[in-house]
Amino acid sequence: MSRLIKEDFDKLCTFIKKYSLSDVLEIDDAKKMLSSLHKKYFAYLVLIEEIHHKIEQKDDVLKMSKEQYEYLQESCSDVGQAFFLTFHGCYKGAKLLLRSSIENFLKGSCLDEDKSLSSTKSVYEVFDKARATGTFKETKASLHAQLHNEYALLCQDVHTADVSHMASITALNHFPSFLKEDAGNISKMVQIIISIYITTIALKYNFVYHSMSYDYKDITNKEIINEYKKEVHNIS
User: Fold this and answer.
1) What is the rounded distance in angstroms from the CA atom of residue 184 to the CA atom of residue 69?
2) Rg (alpha carbons) of the chain, rounded to whole number
3) Are 42 and 220 in contact (CB under 8 A)?
4) Cα 206 to Cα 211: distance, rounded to the nearest angstrom
5) 63 and 111 in contact (C-beta within 8 Å)?
6) Are 86 and 189 in contact (CB under 8 A)?
7) Would you give the distance in Å from CA 214 to the centre of its chain?
């Protein structure tokens, strides 16, 4: 048995040494989807970094604790890791990270209004508590509803709702790979989720959004949901 394990481990090492993503980038559909994912991720990243910059400057207007910022930062990190897994073809893993990202975002966007969120273990309670905060009140309630809908879709993979949600990967040499339908589904989810993130932050921390440099603001503005653009830009 030990000989079989060693032989298989040697094959694993050989696989790792030869592992390359170059073939995936040769696929036009793959490159287009990666470009779309990167654009969304980059827009969220620059907004999170702008918040970090304000915190480092000890901006008194931004009343955000270190813990709250860390949840927001982790939501961005989760998206980045989901992005990384997607261009390797690890689609189920990417969806699990997007699910984690939503949980962290809810805490990161609402912790200042409900400090119990950091100790809340039930995701259902996290959603309920977040919905009760000013972050998702009135015109912003639909942002919460959309995020909840995306989370419910992601949960189907977490709980393997049926055979269509099974990855059925039995060997590592399956990777890297590109499946247009699976990658497309993740791309659509990322577009929706990040647009909700950016719109929510731009509404709640409006002065942060407007203090960004022209280039970064332009990048971020493209990801704000159209129906909220007037409100974000303070247009009656």
Assistant:
1) 30
2) 20
3) no
4) 9
5) no
6) no
7) 24
Rounded CA-CA distance 80/213 in Å is 23
Q: Where are the alpha helices (DSSP H) in 87-213?
A: 91-110, 123-131, 141-158, 180-204, 206-210
Residue position matching structure tokens 């040499």: 173
Higher pLDDT, 21 or 165: 21
Q: Taking Cα atoms as reference points, which of 192, 171, 130, 232 lies closest to residue 8?
A: 171
92's CB contacts (< 8 A; 6+ apart) are: 157, 165, 167
CA distance 232 to 86: 31
**Distance in angstroms (rounded) separating the CA atoms of residues 135 and 158:** 27
Distance, CA of 104 to CA of 71 (rounded, Å): 5
The span from the CA of 226 to the CA of 117, in Å, is: 29
Q: How far apart are CA 211 and CA 64, in angstroms?
A: 16
Furthest CA-CA distance within the chain:
73
CA distance 141 to 184: 27
- Tens digit of each residue's pLDDT (9 = 90 or more) over 95-154: 999 999 999 999 999 999 999 999 999 999 999 999 999 999 999 999 999 999 999 999
For residues 30 and 122, what is the distance between their CA atoms, to the nearest angstrom? 36
Output DSSP code: residue 232. H
